[in-house]
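Our consortium's second objective concerns turning raw sequence data into structural hypotheses that experimental partners can test. To show how far this objective has progressed, the report includes one record in full. It was chosen at random from the queue rather than selected for favorable results. The single chain below, 380 residues long, was entered without modification.
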Amino acid sequence: MHPMVKPALRRAWRDRQSVQFGVTPAQAVVLGPVDPATGCLLGLLDGTRGMELLREEAQAMHLPEGQVEKLVARLSKAGLIDDATAGGAAVDALRSRPGTLDRLRPDLASLSLLHPEPGGGTVRLAARRAIRVQVRGAGRVGATVAALLSASGVGLVEVLDGGSVTPWDVAPGGLPAETIGERRDSAVRQLVRRVAPGPPPRASTAAPDGGVGPGLSLIVVAPRDGFDAYVPDPVLSSEWITSGTPHLYTGVLEGTGVVGPLVLPGGTACSGCLALRRAERDPGWPRMVAQWRSGRRGSAPACDLGLATAVAGLAAAHALTFLDGELPASTGSRWEASLPLLDWRSARITPHPDCPCGAGGHTEGERASGAGAPHDTMAG
């Protein structure tokens, strides 16, 4: 083990005997009591030394025997220690590509905070390389989501859409202006490759026809016309429900941005549950939906660029949280923000007992919430 105090956390002495790691309440931890000699030892935990060398350094500083082990144990218990050598074959493969790893160092620093065990962030970052995601839609939201996922280290990002790139598809972080007139699928594939931190995996598990296929971890539904994200069609998602494929809806409709729900088939509410719940509250809703689906659409749907970019960023963050093994706040919930106030609000979508998805017979787990203030570790 090569212990390293997590570099993402700023360190400051609160007083002469306690050190605070981290600034924000979500991450801050106070360690105490800490004597000055042990404080000097903290500076040596930078991942460049193994335990044996650290013991020699501590001995040269006239620290008591066992002080290194005791300090590392305390820091590990507080979630403050990383291991610069942790991981398996996937991590070794990532470390063998220093250029790729350098691109992803900010992501690694963030993951190390979310997963407190030594090496937890590195393992999850390396695992992203083997993940396959589909993004359905290549407009201002969908193309940006695809680019963000690829740039974050997701190894295989497929984007499904038809037609040619229009001037109003262009967005910073998404499709560039020089792709106007090109086929959307080709333009977006080039975008995904261009922003990726490294080459894609050698073996592809993609389904040749764009279907769900094997190895698909998540579908992000980001249609260019945000109506199909705000009012998702249960018929279109039936295959994903049957195959058990998780899917996340996102988009912009009129002046409202939407992220969620993230649907876990059989466990959380799906688009069918959403439709049934809405029809119960508003009996006229199904009739209007039928008219909206069959009516003519304008050439360029309303999609404020700032809102679209914010929605794409939030959707990508929720997707990555799920892919890294956690359940984001969009699980069984929808987050919305509307112009001009842009106050994000969430609405829980409960499974409907009459929906054939089967989620109505399950009890959804509660999402844990973090404490709002720094917490002290055990002294001594």
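The partners drew two points from this record. The chain has two domains: 3-85, 131-361. The chain has 14 helices and 13 strands. Both points have been shared with the crystallography group to help prioritize constructs.
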